[in-house]
Amino acid sequence: MSVVIVNPSSAGGSTGAAWPQIASDLRSQYGAFRAVFTKHRGDATTLASDAARKGAKLVIACGGDGTISEVANGILSSGKDAELGILPSTAMVIRGDLLLTESEVVEDADEIEIRAVISGGAA
């Protein structure tokens, strides 16, 4: 099962407030997942590492650049192969060579899917 690591404090706390709708939209588009929430800096690293070690094949970071970085580092430190999904939740988002505001991202949400495969296994 996929795991979504949510930083409810990102985007000035609006991620936490919007989470029920975000979760509903994710489930309707992608099916079942398990959500876990960060409470402190560094939590996303531990949560991502634990998720990958327990067999999650897709670990999605929902937050800003700090959350995304922590989730990526957690997957890498797990030593397991897992995909990193990114559900950006910040005031500004970079897509390709474009800088988009949060409202522009929301308008284009159906067209955005950012995925990078990272491997924590031995090369």
Classified in CATH, the superfamily is: Probable inorganic polyphosphate/atp-NAD kinase, domain 1
Tell me roughly what share of residues is in helical segments. 25-40%
Q: Structural class of the helices, strands and pairings?
A: alpha/beta
Largest sheet: 5 strands, mixed
Corresponding CATH architecture: 3-Layer(aba) Sandwich
Rounded radius of gyration (Å): 14 Å
Number of spatially distinct domains: 1
Task: Please provide the count of β strands.
Answer: 7
Q: What is the residue-mean pLDDT, rounded to a whole number?
A: 80
Order of helices and strands: EHEHEHEEEHE
Quickly count the helices: 4
List the uncertain runs. 92-123
How much of the sequence is in beta strands? Answer: 25-35%
First-last Cα distance:
25 Å
CATH class: Alpha Beta
Q: Sum up the overall morphology in one term.
A: globular
CATH topology: Rossmann fold
Strand order of the largest sheet: 2-1-3-4-7
Question: How is the topology of this model organized?
Answer:
Layout: E1 2-6, H1 14-30, E2 33-37, H2 43-53, E3 58-63, H3 65-78, E4 81-88, E5 92-95, E6 98-101, H4 102-107, E7 114-119
Helix pairs in contact: 2-3
